[in-house]
Amino acid sequence: MTFRVSRRNFVAGGATLLSMSALGSKAFAEDARLRLLWWGSQPRADRTNKVSELYKAKNPATSITGEFLGWGDYWPRLATQVAGRNAPDVIQMDYRYIVEYARRGALAPLESYMPGKLSLGDFDPAQIEGGSVDGHFYGVSLGANSASTVLNTTAFEEAGIPLPTRTTTWDELGKIGAEMSKAGKRKGFFGFADGSGAEPLFENFLRQRGKALYTADSKIAFGADDAAEWLDMWSKFREAGACVPPDVQALYKDTIDTAPLTLGKAAVDYAHSNQFVGFQAVSKDKLALTNYPLIKADSKGGHYRKPSMFFSVSAQSKALDQAVDYVNFFVTNPDAAVALDVERGIPESKAMRDVVAAKLDATGKIPLDYVAGLGDLAGKLPPPPPSGAGEGQTVLRTAAEQVGFGQLTPADGGKQIVDEITRLLARG
After folding, report:
1. Rounded to 5 degrees, what are φ and ψ at 346?
2. Contacts within 8 Å (CB) and 24+ apart, 70-75
């Protein structure tokens, strides 16, 4: 699905957004109703609803309703609601989209609430910067995470194959994957999921080569040769039987439940570290985390520590102060921190990290230890992706699928990726 926020719809639906947000203080006293929207699984919804109940216990006059969707359905729904002037008060926002939504007036700037109603004094300054656009603060990070590889350790033990490690290269993973597929311990089982259309994987590959997805001035930062080499590597993995075939990968719908690892089709998959809790919750096998493979043995890796997601407040909100108060409770209340655990990432607040760390079970400690132990595999957080970058991930996935099904060569796929992303960025 291709998604883009229409400039016309944003302007038509948002011309008065900032003036509406100015009514927030008055609306707080008159209308204690909040509506939330987020993407994620049922376990995330359960945790979010628990925090809402905790908040309502302290604010009994407040009514809170929430809705959640899968990633692919979430962004069209949000765009429609914003354009229709029916945006939720509290919006779960992603690093890919925050620039676009902020610059089009859909999000309320929050710096005036700091440090009073919004108490983020013990947040990592880099994460505050990550939620800022053009000198204004629009997104409160709900946790830190990093891209990761999820391993089904039970499947590896059954096959008698050593687990990939911190120093495993892509070439080595290809051999491991082919060996796992040939082991035949499980029916229709392969070494690893097809990550050719996964933007975090591709970005990591580029960063190891000293490149990036985008420049700081909103231009594409890689060439057709880079993308073609990436797609060609995955074509060779398919030919060797190391990864799942394209018809199996096509079942993946950006949810944990539809991931090849969860469906019992692959021993290795890819996720953000905060998703590990969700993966383990739906798997009977024991899982583990490691970093993405290296492009060569002496590579320092292409990871970075990023905001897993943000809570932003709609500029349309008629209860702006109340919404900010809820967000502050979400990230600074100890009981809320315990309810949320690390499912949305490692808490940004040092005080809340200490609260959560003391209560983590063995599963929760795995993503915490993973992020903390990245060391020199992690580099600097890149600047927020430019407007149009959200659509860029769809371009990558579409080209990768076409190469997988033999409809494009890797070279043609690489050119298509660069041409289409360049066109998207030019639209601004």
Report:
1. -75, 125
2. 70/39, 70/253, 70/254, 70/255, 71/39, 71/254, 71/255, 72/1, 72/253, 72/254, 74/37, 74/38, 74/39, 75/3, 75/390
Residue 206 is predicted with a pLDDT of 97
Distance separating alpha carbons of residues 220 and 211, to the nearest angstrom: 10
CB of 156 within 8 A of CB of 300? no
Residue 234 belongs to some domain of the structure: yes
What token pair was written down for 16? 């008065």
User: What is the number of other CB atoms lying within 10 angstroms of the CB of residue 427?
Assistant: 10
User: What is the domain range of residue 63?
Assistant: 7-144+307-362
Whether 84 and 157 share a structural domain: no
Rounded to 5°, angle at Cα 99 from 141 and 353: 10
Residues 311 and 267 occupy one common structural domain: no
Measured distance CA(88)–CA(78) in Å, rounded: 8
DSSP 161-187: -PPP-TT-BHHHHHHHHHHHHHH-SST
Q: Tell me, yes or no, whether 178 and 313 share the same domain.
A: no
Domain count, the chain: 2
> Is residue 106 a contact partner of residue 87, using CB atoms and an 8 Å limit?
yes
CA distance 190 to 265: 6
The per-residue pLDDT for 428 is 67
Residue 348 maps to which CATH number? 3.40.190.10
> Are 5 and 100 contacting, i.e. CB atoms less than 8 angstroms apart?
yes
From the list 289, 7, 19, the residue with the least C-alpha distance to 146 is: 289
SS3 assignment for 107-129: ECCCHHHCCCCCCCCCCCHHHHH
State whether 338 and 256 are in the same domain.
no
DSSP codes of every residue in 304-331: E-EES-EEEEBTT-S-HHHHHHHHHHHH
Q: Residue type for 331, please? A: V
Grouped pLDDT means (10 residues each) for the chain, 428 residues: 38 37 40 90 94 96 95 94 96 93 96 94 87 95 95 98 96 98 95 97 97 93 98 98 97 94 98 94 97 93 93 96 97 97 92 93 93 92 85 94 98 98 89
pLDDT of residue 41: 87
For residues 192 and 272, state if they share a domain.
yes
Residues 413 and 325 in one domain: no
Q: How far apart are CA 345 and CA 145, in angstroms?
A: 5
Residue at which a domain ends, from 362, 377, 406 = 362
State whether 24 and 67 are in the same domain.
yes
What pLDDT was estimated at residue 275? 93
